[in-house]
Amino acid sequence: MSHVMNTYARLPVAFERGEGAWLWDTQGKRYLDALAGVAVCGLGHAHPRLTAVLREQVGKLIHTSNLYEIPLQEKLAKRLIEISGMESVFFCNSGCEANEAAIKLARLYGHKKGIEAPAIIVMEKAFHGRTIATLTATGSRKAQAGFEPLLAGFVRVPFDDLEAVRRVATNNRNVVAVLVELVQGEGGVNVCSPDYLTGLREICDQNQWLLMLDEVQSGTGRTGKWFAYQHSGVKPDVVTLAKGLGNGVPIGTCMAAGVAATLFKPGSHGSTFGGNPLACAAGLETLAIIEEEDLMANAVEIGEFLRAELRQRLGGNPGVKDVRGAGLMVGIELASPCGELVKRALDLGLLINVTADTVVRLLPPLIYTREEAQLVIDKLVPLIAEFLEQQAASGAPQPAAQPA
Ligand code: PLP
Question: Does residue 214 have an active-site annotation?
């Protein structure tokens, strides 16, 4: 009997070691990783350069606390500012903690403007984390159910709908910020329209709201730029980042620019582990490797290859509603719930994920080769086709896609 709290319906496999895009289980079976620890291990597993840096850092110093100066934190903050265009960085350990910092910044900003009950616009199907504030911001009743009372101070609108945001601007004087993922990961790999971010920036400027982007999943090069917003010319006020930044060593950041960059003062926020020497060494080396190995260009190329192949080979299938994504965030939306594909792929030695009930999600490491991508296609396409045939033969109802 397990003594671990029952928060995950785990697959019956345990991995012992990894190398690049491959993992080996305790029985010696090899798996191709098309999930990267849910968008974490962009450099794949056991990257030799990162391993060497981490070994050296562990031998020198792991943690001191934020009561003292941490030169590696300064160095990583400088690098993050260079690549993001932001102006200051708060370090923490996870995506939800990064978003908590963003939410607190928005509330401080609101109070500074004299708004007693500041509110943040959030999106349907959004995912921002599991703490009470980020769960409230998350647009999934399934995730929220049972944890009420949730927090006040959030207004929900449909994703990718500028008119809905404008309506809130007209009707709600308490709004101080918008928090949004440009590519909703957990919500089903939903990509916003090209003019959405520009429109949001305009509305935020007109109303003096903070534009806050959750790049926890889409950041660190995954969409082919350091951050998804860099595909447009728009500069946000707050950006959160986690997952891929430490390639598996826990680290999160909330970065801010303009008025938001100086809102926190000593005592307003903190994190015991946040930005410790080990995490910052991991972050610095991960960013250096992504740049020097040209992994963002690779993410674009391999992502386009995967989507083109999937469209070509599954496009005519009535059970496939859409193939979409950005860089190495790939979603294949089916007409019916398909969670069991995860286990079937595992049996074939392929690690994938299903999110929002009906969307097969691929988040491969950024180091993927064309051959590895081809292998994913060769394993996954017949699996999906066979699954859809069985669904049709069993006369299973084909419900519409459910919200996350
Ligand atoms: N924000 C986004 C967009 C995410 O995808 C996730 C996790 O999937 C989170 C926040 C929460 O991150 P964490 O699990 O590190 O708290």
Answer: yes
